[in-house]
Specification:
By secondary structure, the protein is mainly alpha-helical. The chain has two domains: about 55 residues, no CATH class; about 170 residues. About 50% of the residues lie in helices and about 5% in strands. It contains ten helices and five strands. Strands 3-5-4 form a three-stranded antiparallel beta sheet. A two-stranded parallel ribbon has the order 1-2. α3 packs parallel to α5. The protein starts with 8 loop residues before the first helix and ends in a 5-residue tail after the last helix. InterPro entries: NB-ARC, P-loop_NTPase, Plant_NBS-LRR.
Length: about 250
């Protein structure tokens, strides 16, 4: 359904209602963090409309008719779920390895992953792929995407452009258009050559896997003096004065 970006919420809700009324429709609202007034979205009660909500927390105010509790995945299930993504990222990163010495170093690194259980290897493997990114611009793009990605793991291109230009790390660009082209080119390289971003949508926004986003936040917090937590995590203790003096970013 085409949405007129100039319309306010009420007009959009009316437009949606006119499209779905008198139709059999199934609506999925993913990753809901708080109660939503469905009528305000154009989803009025009707027998032919079924709505599925997914949430990390129980949203009791929604008065749902039926709830399905999904248990936390075991370590084995987590590793099985993310294994394919990690393998692809590593394989893409090794495409440029042309000497036996590079492969030996990589093999030694991979063997060390097994010392950390099942969850840690996924993080270490993705961090290893990050370290193989060719040049500071690709690394900074990867980290910035992780820092500014929201709950849906979408990086709005307009935000990415503002931060990248404001931080001044794009080389050989003099105009906004040149900066835009440079960012898209870098993002495509990270997607195709390293598989550390998912894709670029038609409007330029970039999608990133949750695990990859959290790895980027972890690297930023550890190596780049950024106060960055995994999405939804609570900052329980404010950093000490010395840490704040070294801090360069608080997303």
């Amino acid at each position: 359904m085409d949405v007129d970006e100039t319309q306010d919420m009420e007009a959009r809700a009316k437009h949606l209602w006119n499209r779905i009324k008198d139709k059999n429709i199934f609506v999925i609202l993913d990753d809901v963090w708080e109660a939503i007034v469905l009528e305000a979205l154009g989803l009025r009660p009707m027998a032919t409309c079924k709505i599925l909500l997914t949430s990390r927390n129980r949203v009791s105010e929604m008065n749902t008719k039926k709830e399905f509790l999904l248990k936390v995945l075991s370590m084995e299930e987590n590793w099985s779920l993310f294994e394919k993504m990690v393998v692809v990222a590593i394989a893409r990163s090794l495409r440029s390895a042309t000497t036996i010495e590079e492969w030996r170093v990589a093999l030694k690194d991979f063997k060390s992953f097994d010392e950390h259980g099942l969850a840690k290897p996924a993080y270490l493997a993705l961090e290893w792929s990050y370290n193989r990114l060719d040049g500071d611009e690709l690394k900074r793009l990867f980290l910035l995407c992780g820092i500014i990605a929201g709950g849906g793991c979408t990086i709005f291109f307009s935000d990415l452009l503002k931060y990248a230009m404001g931080l001044g790390w794009l080389k050989n660009v003099d105009t906004v258009e040149e900066a835009r082209d440079k960012l898209i080119s870098l993002a495509n390289k990270v997607i195709k050559d390293y598989c550390l971003l998912l894709d670029i949508e038609d409007d330029g926004d970039i999608r990133k896997h949750e695990l990859v986003r959290d790895v980027a936040k972890g690297i930023s917090s550890k190596d780049n003096h950024a106060i960055a937590k995994a999405y939804g995590d609570e900052l329980k203790e404010w950093p000490d004065r010395n840490s704040l003096k070294k801090c360069t970013a608080i997303p």
